Amino acid sequence: MDPSDPSRLSPPRAAPETICARSTPLPRSSSPPLVPAPQLSVVYRFEGLDHVDAVYAGQADGFVYARDGHPNAAALADRVAALEGAESAAVYASGMAATAAVLLAELGSGDHIAFAEQLYGKTISLIDRELRRFGIEASGFDATRPETLASVLRDRTRLVMVETLSNPLLRVPDLPSLAEMANRAGAKLVVDHTFAPLLCRPLELGASYVVHSGTKLIGGHSDLTLGLVAGPAEAMDRVRRLGSTFGLSGNPFESWLACRGLATLPLRSARCCATAMELAERLGRSPAVRAVHYPGLPDHPDHDRARSLLQGGFGAIVTLDLGDRGRADAFIRHLGQIPFAPSLGDVATTLSHPATTSHRGQEPELLARHGITPGLIRLSIGLEDPADLSADLEQALAAVS
Ligand SMILES: Cc1ncc(COP(=O)(O)O)c(C=O)c1O
After folding, report:
1. Domain limits, the chain
2. Neighbour tally for 357: CB within 10 Å
3. Higher pLDDT, 6 or 149
Protein backbone atom coordinates (compact mmCIF):
# COMPACT_ATOMS: atom_id res chain seq x y z
CA MET A 1 0.00 0.00 0.00
CA ASP A 2 1.13 3.53 -0.77
CA PRO A 3 2.71 4.83 2.48
CA SER A 4 1.62 8.40 1.72
CA ASP A 5 -2.06 7.39 1.39
CA PRO A 6 -3.77 8.94 4.46
CA SER A 7 -6.44 6.19 4.57
CA ARG A 8 -3.69 3.71 5.40
CA LEU A 9 -3.38 5.15 8.90
CA SER A 10 -6.86 6.45 9.59
CA PRO A 11 -9.47 4.34 7.76
CA PRO A 12 -12.64 6.32 6.84
CA ARG A 13 -14.65 4.97 9.75
CA ALA A 14 -11.96 5.13 12.39
CA ALA A 15 -12.82 6.14 15.95
CA PRO A 16 -12.03 9.73 17.00
CA GLU A 17 -9.19 8.45 19.21
CA THR A 18 -7.60 6.74 16.20
CA ILE A 19 -8.06 9.73 13.91
CA CYS A 20 -6.52 12.06 16.48
CA ALA A 21 -3.63 9.80 17.46
CA ARG A 22 -2.24 9.01 14.03
CA SER A 23 -0.30 11.52 12.00
CA THR A 24 -1.15 11.81 8.33
CA PRO A 25 1.37 12.66 5.61
CA LEU A 26 1.26 16.13 4.08
CA PRO A 27 -0.61 16.32 0.77
CA ARG A 28 1.62 15.62 -2.20
CA SER A 29 2.69 18.54 -4.35
CA SER A 30 4.03 18.30 -7.89
CA SER A 31 5.70 21.66 -7.16
CA PRO A 32 8.24 21.20 -4.36
CA PRO A 33 8.59 24.00 -1.78
CA LEU A 34 11.36 26.51 -2.48
CA VAL A 35 12.46 26.46 1.15
CA PRO A 36 13.15 23.05 2.74
CA ALA A 37 10.97 22.52 5.84
CA PRO A 38 12.22 21.79 9.34
CA GLN A 39 11.76 18.02 9.66
CA LEU A 40 10.87 17.61 13.33
CA SER A 41 10.10 13.88 13.27
CA VAL A 42 12.13 11.93 15.80
CA VAL A 43 11.71 8.69 13.89
CA TYR A 44 11.20 7.47 10.30
CA ARG A 45 8.89 4.75 8.90
CA PHE A 46 9.98 1.65 6.99
CA GLU A 47 8.32 -0.65 4.47
CA GLY A 48 9.76 -3.71 6.13
CA LEU A 49 12.95 -5.28 7.41
CA ASP A 50 14.89 -5.16 4.11
CA HIS A 51 14.22 -1.44 3.92
CA VAL A 52 15.51 -0.69 7.45
CA ASP A 53 18.56 -2.91 6.78
CA ALA A 54 19.28 -0.99 3.56
CA VAL A 55 19.06 2.41 5.28
CA TYR A 56 21.32 1.30 8.14
CA ALA A 57 23.78 -0.09 5.60
CA GLY A 58 23.74 3.15 3.59
CA GLN A 59 22.39 1.30 0.52
CA ALA A 60 19.17 3.32 0.55
CA ASP A 61 18.78 7.02 1.29
CA GLY A 62 17.14 7.89 4.54
CA PHE A 63 17.21 8.35 8.27
CA VAL A 64 16.11 6.13 11.15
CA TYR A 65 16.22 8.11 14.38
CA ALA A 66 16.91 11.84 14.85
CA ARG A 67 19.67 11.42 17.42
CA ASP A 68 21.64 9.50 14.74
CA GLY A 69 20.89 11.98 11.98
CA HIS A 70 18.10 13.97 10.34
CA PRO A 71 17.67 15.94 7.10
CA ASN A 72 18.16 19.43 8.62
CA ALA A 73 21.45 18.51 10.30
CA ALA A 74 22.61 16.85 7.08
CA ALA A 75 21.76 19.98 5.07
CA LEU A 76 23.58 22.26 7.53
CA ALA A 77 26.57 19.92 7.76
CA ASP A 78 26.91 19.78 3.96
CA ARG A 79 27.06 23.56 3.72
CA VAL A 80 29.58 23.91 6.54
CA ALA A 81 31.74 21.13 5.04
CA ALA A 82 31.72 23.04 1.74
CA LEU A 83 32.65 26.32 3.49
CA GLU A 84 35.53 24.66 5.34
CA GLY A 85 36.74 22.65 2.33
CA ALA A 86 36.11 19.48 4.38
CA GLU A 87 35.08 16.02 3.20
CA SER A 88 32.46 15.79 5.92
CA ALA A 89 30.85 17.68 8.82
CA ALA A 90 28.42 16.95 11.64
CA VAL A 91 26.07 18.99 13.82
CA TYR A 92 26.00 18.90 17.64
CA ALA A 93 23.81 20.39 20.36
CA SER A 94 26.31 23.18 21.21
CA GLY A 95 29.88 24.27 20.57
CA MET A 96 30.87 22.43 23.74
CA ALA A 97 29.13 19.25 22.51
CA ALA A 98 31.03 19.53 19.20
CA THR A 99 34.37 19.86 21.01
CA ALA A 100 33.48 17.01 23.38
CA ALA A 101 32.63 14.77 20.40
CA VAL A 102 36.07 15.27 18.83
CA LEU A 103 37.95 14.84 22.10
CA LEU A 104 36.01 11.74 23.15
CA ALA A 105 36.37 10.20 19.68
CA GLU A 106 40.13 10.72 19.56
CA LEU A 107 41.32 10.30 23.16
CA GLY A 108 41.42 7.35 25.51
CA SER A 109 42.86 6.62 28.91
CA GLY A 110 46.64 7.23 28.93
CA ASP A 111 46.51 9.58 25.93
CA HIS A 112 47.67 13.19 26.13
CA ILE A 113 46.27 16.45 24.73
CA ALA A 114 48.15 19.74 24.43
CA PHE A 115 45.80 22.73 24.68
CA ALA A 116 46.34 26.43 24.14
CA GLU A 117 45.99 28.24 27.46
CA GLN A 118 44.12 30.93 25.51
CA LEU A 119 41.15 28.61 24.79
CA TYR A 120 37.58 29.45 25.86
CA GLY A 121 37.36 28.84 29.63
CA LYS A 122 34.84 25.97 29.44
CA THR A 123 36.96 24.18 26.84
CA ILE A 124 39.88 24.34 29.27
CA SER A 125 37.64 22.97 32.04
CA LEU A 126 36.55 20.10 29.77
CA ILE A 127 40.14 19.20 28.91
CA ASP A 128 41.98 19.99 32.10
CA ARG A 129 39.35 18.96 34.68
CA GLU A 130 36.77 16.58 33.22
CA LEU A 131 38.91 14.52 30.82
CA ARG A 132 41.55 14.06 33.51
CA ARG A 133 38.96 12.09 35.51
CA PHE A 134 39.06 9.49 32.71
CA GLY A 135 42.84 9.18 32.71
CA ILE A 136 43.49 11.59 29.84
CA GLU A 137 46.57 13.73 30.46
CA ALA A 138 46.65 17.39 29.45
CA SER A 139 49.25 20.18 29.21
CA GLY A 140 48.72 23.84 28.45
CA PHE A 141 50.95 25.85 26.09
CA ASP A 142 51.04 29.39 24.74
CA ALA A 143 49.51 29.26 21.25
CA THR A 144 51.51 32.29 20.14
CA ARG A 145 54.86 30.70 21.10
CA PRO A 146 55.23 27.40 19.19
CA GLU A 147 58.34 26.54 21.22
CA THR A 148 56.03 26.08 24.24
CA LEU A 149 54.12 23.42 22.28
CA ALA A 150 57.37 21.64 21.50
CA SER A 151 58.13 21.44 25.21
CA VAL A 152 54.85 19.65 26.10
CA LEU A 153 54.53 17.16 23.21
CA ARG A 154 54.82 13.49 24.28
CA ASP A 155 54.70 10.05 22.69
CA ARG A 156 51.04 9.73 23.64
CA THR A 157 50.02 13.25 22.48
CA ARG A 158 47.07 12.59 20.18
CA LEU A 159 45.58 16.08 19.87
CA VAL A 160 46.68 19.72 19.94
CA MET A 161 43.86 22.26 20.34
CA VAL A 162 43.88 26.02 19.59
CA GLU A 163 41.50 28.80 18.51
CA THR A 164 41.96 30.84 15.32
CA LEU A 165 41.45 34.08 17.25
CA SER A 166 41.92 33.79 20.99
CA ASN A 167 39.39 35.12 23.47
CA PRO A 168 39.50 37.95 24.54
CA LEU A 169 42.88 39.31 23.34
CA LEU A 170 42.45 38.07 19.76
CA ARG A 171 45.90 36.56 19.47
CA VAL A 172 46.49 34.79 16.15
CA PRO A 173 48.44 31.53 16.39
CA ASP A 174 50.65 30.40 13.53
CA LEU A 175 48.31 27.57 12.49
CA PRO A 176 50.55 26.09 9.74
CA SER A 177 53.54 25.82 12.12
CA LEU A 178 51.45 24.36 14.94
CA ALA A 179 49.87 21.84 12.53
CA GLU A 180 53.29 20.79 11.27
CA MET A 181 54.65 20.36 14.79
CA ALA A 182 51.57 18.38 15.86
CA ASN A 183 51.65 16.13 12.79
CA ARG A 184 55.38 15.49 13.15
CA ALA A 185 54.69 14.27 16.70
CA GLY A 186 51.88 11.98 15.44
CA ALA A 187 49.12 14.28 16.76
CA LYS A 188 46.19 16.01 15.07
CA LEU A 189 45.49 19.75 15.28
CA VAL A 190 41.93 20.76 16.30
CA VAL A 191 41.02 24.39 15.62
CA ASP A 192 38.08 26.10 17.32
CA HIS A 193 37.10 28.51 14.53
CA THR A 194 34.14 30.11 16.33
CA PHE A 195 35.49 33.68 16.18
CA ALA A 196 36.59 33.55 12.55
CA PRO A 197 34.21 31.68 10.22
CA LEU A 198 35.04 32.63 6.60
CA LEU A 199 38.26 34.46 7.56
CA CYS A 200 40.41 31.40 6.76
CA ARG A 201 40.08 27.64 6.29
CA PRO A 202 42.03 25.89 9.06
CA LEU A 203 41.90 22.50 7.28
CA GLU A 204 43.84 24.02 4.38
CA LEU A 205 46.41 25.33 6.87
CA GLY A 206 47.06 21.82 8.21
CA ALA A 207 44.37 21.27 10.87
CA SER A 208 42.71 17.85 11.08
CA TYR A 209 39.41 19.09 12.54
CA VAL A 210 37.68 22.44 12.66
CA VAL A 211 35.09 23.08 15.37
CA HIS A 212 32.49 25.88 15.56
CA SER A 213 30.06 27.11 18.13
CA GLY A 214 27.20 27.63 15.67
CA THR A 215 25.54 29.58 18.48
CA LYS A 216 27.69 32.58 17.57
CA LEU A 217 28.37 34.01 14.11
CA ILE A 218 26.99 31.11 12.05
CA GLY A 219 23.56 31.32 13.73
CA GLY A 220 24.01 35.05 13.93
CA HIS A 221 20.82 35.97 15.82
CA SER A 222 21.35 34.68 19.41
CA ASP A 223 18.36 32.38 19.05
CA LEU A 224 19.90 28.93 18.65
CA THR A 225 22.50 26.77 20.40
CA LEU A 226 24.47 24.41 18.12
CA GLY A 227 27.97 23.19 17.35
CA LEU A 228 29.71 21.83 14.27
CA VAL A 229 32.75 19.71 13.49
CA ALA A 230 34.29 19.35 10.02
CA GLY A 231 37.12 17.06 8.94
CA PRO A 232 38.12 14.03 6.84
CA ALA A 233 35.30 11.58 6.04
CA GLU A 234 36.74 8.54 7.82
CA ALA A 235 37.56 10.40 11.04
CA MET A 236 34.18 12.14 10.95
CA ASP A 237 32.36 8.75 10.78
CA ARG A 238 33.76 8.02 14.21
CA VAL A 239 33.04 11.52 15.56
CA ARG A 240 29.47 11.20 14.26
CA ARG A 241 28.93 7.76 15.81
CA LEU A 242 30.30 9.01 19.11
CA GLY A 243 27.94 12.00 19.04
CA SER A 244 25.00 9.64 18.67
CA THR A 245 26.12 7.28 21.45
CA PHE A 246 26.77 10.12 23.91
CA GLY A 247 23.60 11.90 22.78
CA LEU A 248 25.35 15.10 21.68
CA SER A 249 23.39 15.65 18.45
CA GLY A 250 21.83 18.96 17.39
CA ASN A 251 18.08 19.23 16.86
CA PRO A 252 16.20 19.81 13.59
CA PHE A 253 14.69 23.22 14.24
CA GLU A 254 17.95 24.81 15.34
CA SER A 255 19.75 23.21 12.38
CA TRP A 256 17.12 24.75 10.13
CA LEU A 257 17.59 28.15 11.81
CA ALA A 258 21.36 27.88 11.43
CA CYS A 259 20.96 27.28 7.66
CA ARG A 260 18.97 30.48 7.58
CA GLY A 261 21.77 32.24 9.48
CA LEU A 262 24.35 30.92 7.01
CA ALA A 263 22.57 32.63 4.13
CA THR A 264 23.66 36.04 5.42
CA LEU A 265 26.96 35.04 7.05
CA PRO A 266 29.21 36.49 4.30
CA LEU A 267 27.33 39.81 4.33
CA ARG A 268 27.29 40.00 8.13
CA SER A 269 30.92 39.02 8.40
CA ALA A 270 32.13 41.65 5.92
CA ARG A 271 30.04 44.40 7.52
CA CYS A 272 30.99 43.48 11.12
CA CYS A 273 34.70 43.31 10.23
CA ALA A 274 34.57 46.74 8.56
CA THR A 275 32.77 48.35 11.51
CA ALA A 276 35.05 46.61 14.02
CA MET A 277 38.11 48.04 12.24
CA GLU A 278 36.64 51.54 12.22
CA LEU A 279 35.68 51.41 15.92
CA ALA A 280 39.01 49.89 16.97
CA GLU A 281 40.81 52.83 15.37
CA ARG A 282 38.48 55.38 16.98
CA LEU A 283 38.57 53.76 20.43
CA GLY A 284 42.36 53.68 20.30
CA ARG A 285 42.30 57.50 20.26
CA SER A 286 40.19 57.78 23.43
CA PRO A 287 42.12 58.86 26.54
CA ALA A 288 39.76 56.72 28.68
CA VAL A 289 40.91 53.52 26.96
CA ARG A 290 44.16 52.02 28.22
CA ALA A 291 44.55 49.65 25.24
CA VAL A 292 42.55 48.33 22.28
CA HIS A 293 43.13 44.73 21.20
CA TYR A 294 42.23 44.13 17.55
CA PRO A 295 44.36 42.18 15.07
CA GLY A 296 43.63 44.74 12.34
CA LEU A 297 45.54 47.43 14.26
CA PRO A 298 49.22 47.73 13.31
CA ASP A 299 50.27 47.68 16.99
CA HIS A 300 48.57 44.32 17.70
CA PRO A 301 51.32 41.77 18.42
CA ASP A 302 50.02 39.40 15.70
CA HIS A 303 49.05 42.00 13.09
CA ASP A 304 51.46 40.69 10.42
CA ARG A 305 50.36 37.10 10.92
CA ALA A 306 46.70 38.15 10.85
CA ARG A 307 47.32 39.91 7.54
CA SER A 308 48.83 36.80 6.03
CA LEU A 309 46.40 34.21 7.47
CA LEU A 310 43.04 36.01 7.49
CA GLN A 311 41.15 37.10 4.39
CA GLY A 312 38.23 39.48 4.24
CA GLY A 313 38.83 41.19 7.57
CA PHE A 314 40.13 40.77 11.10
CA GLY A 315 36.93 39.63 12.80
CA ALA A 316 33.94 41.09 14.61
CA ILE A 317 35.43 41.22 18.11
CA VAL A 318 37.23 44.22 19.63
CA THR A 319 38.54 44.16 23.20
CA LEU A 320 39.14 47.28 25.31
CA ASP A 321 41.21 47.61 28.43
CA LEU A 322 39.64 50.15 30.77
CA GLY A 323 42.12 49.59 33.60
CA ASP A 324 40.12 48.00 36.41
CA ARG A 325 36.83 46.35 37.36
CA GLY A 326 35.26 49.58 38.67
CA ARG A 327 35.82 51.43 35.39
CA ALA A 328 34.64 48.42 33.37
CA ASP A 329 31.46 48.30 35.47
CA ALA A 330 30.86 52.06 35.12
CA PHE A 331 31.30 51.78 31.33
CA ILE A 332 28.74 48.94 31.16
CA ARG A 333 26.25 50.95 33.25
CA HIS A 334 26.62 54.12 31.17
CA LEU A 335 26.11 52.49 27.77
CA GLY A 336 22.68 53.41 26.43
CA GLN A 337 22.14 50.86 23.66
CA ILE A 338 24.84 48.18 23.82
CA PRO A 339 23.77 45.45 26.24
CA PHE A 340 26.04 43.47 28.55
CA ALA A 341 25.05 40.04 27.22
CA PRO A 342 27.87 37.51 27.54
CA SER A 343 27.86 35.88 24.10
CA LEU A 344 28.94 37.10 20.65
CA GLY A 345 28.11 37.02 16.97
CA ASP A 346 24.65 38.62 17.15
CA VAL A 347 23.28 40.96 14.46
CA ALA A 348 23.32 43.64 17.17
CA THR A 349 26.42 44.74 19.08
CA THR A 350 26.79 43.21 22.55
CA LEU A 351 29.52 43.29 25.14
CA SER A 352 30.99 40.86 27.60
CA HIS A 353 33.30 41.05 30.59
CA PRO A 354 35.62 38.02 30.18
CA ALA A 355 36.94 37.98 33.77
CA THR A 356 33.44 37.43 35.21
CA THR A 357 31.90 35.39 32.35
CA SER A 358 33.81 33.35 29.71
CA HIS A 359 36.88 32.97 31.95
CA ARG A 360 35.05 32.76 35.27
CA GLY A 361 36.57 30.20 37.61
CA GLN A 362 39.87 29.83 35.71
CA GLU A 363 43.11 29.74 37.70
CA PRO A 364 44.19 33.31 38.60
CA GLU A 365 47.79 32.54 37.48
CA LEU A 366 46.56 31.45 34.06
CA LEU A 367 44.47 34.62 33.67
CA ALA A 368 47.41 36.78 34.75
CA ARG A 369 49.78 34.97 32.35
CA HIS A 370 47.53 35.81 29.41
CA GLY A 371 46.62 39.36 30.41
CA ILE A 372 42.96 38.65 31.18
CA THR A 373 42.38 41.42 33.68
CA PRO A 374 39.15 42.74 35.31
CA GLY A 375 39.41 45.92 33.20
CA LEU A 376 38.83 44.10 29.88
CA ILE A 377 35.59 44.61 27.95
CA ARG A 378 34.97 42.46 24.87
CA LEU A 379 32.74 43.99 22.20
CA SER A 380 31.01 41.82 19.60
CA ILE A 381 30.29 44.20 16.77
CA GLY A 382 26.96 43.94 14.95
CA LEU A 383 25.29 45.51 11.95
CA GLU A 384 24.34 48.93 13.35
CA ASP A 385 25.50 52.20 11.84
CA PRO A 386 29.11 52.70 13.03
CA ALA A 387 28.38 56.34 13.92
CA ASP A 388 25.54 55.31 16.27
CA LEU A 389 27.77 52.71 17.94
CA SER A 390 30.59 55.17 18.25
CA ALA A 391 28.34 57.81 19.85
CA ASP A 392 27.14 55.33 22.50
CA LEU A 393 30.67 54.08 23.24
CA GLU A 394 32.10 57.60 23.44
CA GLN A 395 29.46 58.93 25.83
CA ALA A 396 30.04 55.92 28.14
CA LEU A 397 33.82 56.44 27.98
CA ALA A 398 33.35 60.13 28.79
CA ALA A 399 31.34 59.16 31.87
CA VAL A 400 34.09 56.73 32.95
CA SER A 401 36.86 59.30 32.65
C1 LIG B 1 35.50 30.23 21.26
C2 LIG B 1 34.34 29.45 21.80
N3 LIG B 1 34.29 28.12 21.58
C4 LIG B 1 33.26 27.38 22.05
C5 LIG B 1 32.24 27.94 22.77
C6 LIG B 1 31.14 27.07 23.27
O7 LIG B 1 30.01 27.23 22.46
P8 LIG B 1 28.53 26.89 22.97
O9 LIG B 1 28.16 27.99 23.92
O10 LIG B 1 27.72 26.87 21.71
O11 LIG B 1 28.61 25.58 23.64
C12 LIG B 1 32.25 29.31 23.02
C13 LIG B 1 31.17 29.92 23.80
O14 LIG B 1 31.19 31.08 24.15
C15 LIG B 1 33.34 30.09 22.52
O16 LIG B 1 33.39 31.41 22.74
Report:
1. 65-259, 265-400
2. 15
3. 149
Q: Which amino acid is at 6?
A: P
Task: Look at strands 291-293 and 227-231 and give their pairing.
Answer: unpaired
216 is catalytic: yes
CB atoms within 10 A of CB 335: 18
Q: Does domain 65-259 have CATH number 3.40.640.10?
A: yes
Atom of ligand 1 nearest to the CA of 226: 10
Q: State whether residue 378 is helix, strand or coil.
A: strand
Q: What three-state secondary structure class fits 360?
A: coil
CATH number of 265-400: 3.90.1150.10
Burial letters 143-152, b for 16+ CB under 10 A, else e: bbeeebbeeb
What span, in angstroms and rounded, lies between the C-alpha atoms of 293 and 148? 23
Give 112 Cα–ligand 1 centroid separation in angstroms.
Answer: 23
Residue 3 pLDDT exceeds 80 = no
CB atoms inside a 10 Å sphere around CB 45: 12
Distances (CA, A) of 152 to 138, 160, 186, 362: 9, 10, 13, 21
**Ligand 1 pocket at CB < 6 A:** 94-96, 120, 163, 167, 192, 194-195, 213, 215, 225, 227, 358
Q: pLDDT for 212-255, tens place per residue?
A: 999 999 999 999 999 999 999 999 999 999 999 999 999 999 99
Counting from 1 in the atom list of ligand 1, the atom nearest the Cα of 194 is 1
Q: Give counts: helices (H), strands (E), the chain.
A: 13, 11
- How many angstroms separate the alpha carbon of residue 380 from the centre of ligand 1? 14
What lies within 8 Å, CB to CB, of 335 at 6+ separation is 351, 392, 393, 396
Alpha carbon of 5 to ligand 1 centroid (Å): 45
How far, in Å, is the centroid of ligand 1 from the Cα of 95? 5
Is 67 an annotated catalytic residue? yes
Q: Known catalytic residue: 302?
A: no
Q: What is the largest CA-CA distance in the chain?
A: 80
174, 192, 321, 346: the active-site residue = 192
Cα-flanking dihedrals φ and ψ of residue 218, to 5°? -65, -50
Give how far the C-alpha of residue 73 lies from the chain's centroid of Cα atoms, to the nearest Å.
15
Nearest CA to ligand 1 atom 14: 343
